[in-house]
Amino acid sequence: MTTATERRQMKSAARLYAVQALFQMEASGQAVKAVCREFETHRFGATYDEGEFAEGDVDHFRKLVEEAVNWQAMIDQLTDRALVAKWPIDRIDPVLRALFRAAGAEITQMDTPPKVTITEYVDVAKAFFPEGKEAKFVNAVLDHMAREAKPAAF
C-alpha cells in the first residue's frame, strides 16, 4: 500500500515524464501511444548506469499526455494570452512549450487545484532549468492561465 507522500511523489514524477514525452513527440513526430508505451516501459522505475528513474503514476501520466494532445489548440491559445504581447508560444523554448501544454491540460481538464498545479510545474521547470529564471516565468504564465481558466479557485 502506498502512502499519501508516495502517491504525491509518483504524480510529481508523472508530470516530469509528461513534459518529457510531449517534448519528444514534438521533436520526433511520434504518436501518443508509442511515446507513452516507451516511457512506461523504459523510464518509470527503470535503473540505468546513469541512475534510477522515479516510479511514476502511470494513469496520471497518460491522462496528462492525452489531454495535452487533445486540447493542444485551446491550451496554446490560453498560453498565448498569458505570454507577453508579440511573443507567441511557437517562439518559446520547446521544453517550456511542452511544460505549458502539460500544465494547461491539468489546469483545464483535471480536478487538481490550480495552485497545486502551478507549484508542481514550477518544480518541473527548476528540474529542467536549475540555473535560470524560467521558474519565475513559468509561475507567472501558469498563474495567468489558471486565473483565466478557473477564476473561482482564486
UniProtKB/TrEMBL annotation:
Task: Please give the SUPFAM superfamilies that the UniProt record associates with this protein.
Answer: NusB-like
- Could you mention a single GO BP entry for this protein? DNA-templated transcription termination
Q: Which Pfam families match?
A: NusB (PF01029)
Per the database record, which ranges form the NusB/RsmB/TIM44 domain?
A: 13-147
Q: Any idea which UniProt keywords this protein has?
A: RNA-binding, Transcription, Transcription antitermination, Transcription regulation
Q: Name one GO cellular component term.
A: cytosol
Q: Tell me the superkingdom of the source.
A: Bacteria
Give the Gene Ontology MF terms in alphabetical order. Answer: RNA binding
Cell membrane is among the record's keywords = no
* Record-stated family: Belongs to the NusB family.
- Function text: Involved in transcription antitermination. Required for transcription of ribosomal RNA (rRNA) genes. Binds specifically to the boxA antiterminator sequence of the ribosomal RNA (rrn) operons.
Name by which UniProt lists this protein: Transcription antitermination protein NusB
Annotated source species: Fuscovulum blasticum DSM 2131
The opening ranks of the lineage are: Bacteria, Pseudomonadati, Pseudomonadota, Alphaproteobacteria, Rhodobacterales
